[in-house]
Task: structure prediction
Amino acid sequence: MIARVGGGLYVGGTGQASVTNSSISACKAEADGGAISSNDASHVSVINSTLVTNQATQHGGAVSLHSRGESSFLGCGFEGNSALRGGAIREKDRDGLQHIYEGLPLSNNSAITGGGAFYMDTSFNFTCTGCEYLDNQAAYGPDYATPAIGFSPTYDSSAIISFAGLVGVSDTILSPVSVVRRDHFNQEVIDTLYGTVSARCNSTTLGGNTILSFDRTSPVVSFSDLLLLGRDGTIHTLSFSMDEITTEPENIDTLLRCPDGTIQINDFARETTGKPPRVK
Result:
């Protein structure tokens, strides 16, 4: 029988557990924590031990920490563990507490999506002192990763956008605008957690396909047929936002000039700032 959480050890409530000079290997969990799962307000201390080839279907191939209690891992080796997210260790909802990681060799751990070694769900105050990373693998963030918390829009500065020439209105199809989602470490995110990104315009109607979906194979979506309806010379701001994400919208300001029926992308007032994502 395979445990749902904590394939080798489960600690919940206000419980405490200590593991010293031990080895936990080849344990499995249907959900989280292939070897160890800590929940509620529990505390786990693991010292001079090895966690090898453990598996979780969801989070934390070796360890899942979903606890308000402080846990510590000192001088422990993590090798060959695997999960959907957080091949070795996954953290979630620790209410500002910082778990202690010191002297951990982490090698050959893997995640299908993010965080070959570490995956931090909601808390990013992360320190691993004297840790060594070797040959960990993931779709993004082979050593550590978070969910998408921001994104950045870009476009081809050499492209030409067309002008339909309607009387008194610039009916302008923008060159493709790509939006890249990023995690706390500014890594491009390849995951299924956040599905769509929407485009809006502050001062005029925005036509075309304004809502696109991410898929797990790429961190990028490209708006290829956005349509601006506005008068020539007007400054428009395009805003992009993602569902279930804590970030301020990223903007691209454009100055439309249509002297001869075409608009060079270089005529834009300014390009995207490329600011790193900020957490609210």
User: Anything to note?
Assistant: The chain is about 0% helix and 50% strand.
